[in-house]
Amino acid sequence: MKRFLCTLAAVATITAFSPQIEAEAASVKTTESQLMNIADDYIGVPYKWGGTTTSGFDCSGYIQYVFKKAGVSVPRTTSQMVNAGTAVAKSNLQVGDLVFFNTSGRGVSHAGIYAGDNKFIHASSSRGVTITSLSDPYYWGSKYVTARRIVDFPAKAQAEVAEVVQAAAENPYANASKPISRLDAAEALVKELGLKPIHTNTSYFRDIPANHPKIAVINAVYEAGIFTGANGNFNAGGNLSRAQMAKILVESFNLTGSTNANFKDVPADSWAAPYINTLYHNKVTTGYTAGPKAGTYGLNENVTRTQLGKFMDRIK
Questions:
Q1: Could you tell me if 233 and 304 lie in one domain?
Q2: Hey, which residues are catalytic here?
Q3: Whose CB has fewer CB within 10 Å in the chain, the N or C terminal residue?
Q4: What range defines the domain where residue 136 resides?
Q5: Which residues of 244-282 are buried (b: 16+ CB within 10 A; e: fewer)?
């Protein structure tokens, strides 16, 4: 699956940690699990080129923000970070280590924070802040370059750290409650699939002017048959529902096959049922399996940025 990832906010001179920063890192009281709790708080925050705040992060901006909250200063850019701290073998990674990737073919261009259990948390330009497998055979496994240890955290029981990581993996959008709009979902799919519009000087929808700033995105998903709108309108600012998400994922990735999921909240005659059954057949969704919503899909619930990203990640 094609991925669109973080690149450097700016080209900077490579510098090492100063003694002051090293001393600060050495004396930090934050534990690995506390660091991961901080990192998890921003899952779902959207990607923003050059972003260093919770309104949007790039990859290094996210790392710098998280470590600052933990009481540690780190450099601003990926090219500086890769020379900070001490080198760590991939086989010796610990929670909190920085992991680096070559996504551009021109050296280190992306970074994240190792989260344990062979996962890392990072700001992806197509999904925002998310958790990803370090050994993803479709992309990350072949892009890995090196790792650096910024902080030698006090020893903690691995079970405590694993609990934090597992909680984030099971409910990665717990702290990202803002629904994703139909326009933002369309833009994420355009980036993921590399879609290009045929027409950029006309509109297919009554509520979208031909000079709309995102006309290329909207036309691209319409021409690909992914978003068809309702009653002639695109409803760009409307929230994307889980029912609508099922349709656009099936259409986007040409998923086939159908297994009756028997979700309690999805009537057999619902327009969305065939799409949901296809997602279930392809192991993209299992619905809610625990709690008061067990056995349901969440047909009319809104989709968050991270939830959409996780569903997309499950499509191979």
A1: yes
A2: 59, 110, 122
A3: C
A4: 19-170
A5: bbbbbbbbbbebeebeebebebbeeeeebbebbbbbbbb
